[in-house]
Specification:
The structure is a single chain. Helices cover 17% and strands 40% of the residues. It is of the alpha+beta class. The strands form 5 sheets. A 6-stranded antiparallel barrel has the order 1-2-3-6-5-4. Strand 18 and strand 19 form a beta hairpin. The radius of gyration is 22 Å and the shape is elongated.
Length: 297
Amino acid sequence: MSNVLVELSNAMAEAAEKVGASTVMVNARRRLPATGIAYSADLILTANHVVEREEGITVTLSDGTEILAMVAGRDHGTDLALLRLESPKARPAETAKDAKVGQLVLALGRPSETGIEASLGVVSAVGGPVHTRHGAIDKYIRTDTTPFPGFSGGPLADAEGRVIGLNTSGFGHGVSITIPADLAWKVAEQLAKHGSVQRGYLGVRSQGVEIPDAAQKALKREQATGLLLVGVENDSPAEAAGLMVGDIIVAIDGQPVHDHDELLASLSGEVVDKSTPVEVLRGGQPQTITVKIGARK
């Protein structure tokens, strides 16, 4: 008769070993080293706040090989940094797209040369968007794993050893959250190409308002709130497209916009320099205005 607990224990140990092969030690600050994840053979994704210097950075791979690295890019909004290795010897991590509340997960770190460390827990919440000191994160994962010292920049892995996110305590108040892998990998792709992350710029000031029942009927959908434009900046994409003070933004690129968080989420780097439909209520009637979204400087 099989022992379910032993099987589970062995499975989690195997998962830790698998993702541990792609988990590295990052020595880029004065105190305790931090952790990173191999995005590719020559690129390491880690938490931005643990990279305190631009030179003299070293990365130690799972087999103990130490390699010099340089900063390829940073994004303060998501607290992510990308390091480029002098030699492409890292083993890229396998990722998984979705995290589910209640799912068993492992938070891993390699804060020293003694080896990988792990903390077992479950996904306690999946939420977002959320404001940070330097922007907003579209989505986040929260777990009850223990964020041991040096775990920032390390992976959150599922029971199959696939990375479902990158852990960081860089948003303050001693709280550790996980940036989902799909978001983290998109940021890494932009950092590899541009050294920074582009974010959309509309050029408006707005405040949340309730949408009257009659206007909801005109929209042909239930949407209780939108964003009233109280200012349109000169020479902005919004002004060029004809958006006006008094318009109520209710959707961008087909996705409803209920509040400021959703507006920020809709202005991702993917819409920069693209002609994007913006649905507004003007005089209580819906209109769609095409706006060429700019890049935030």
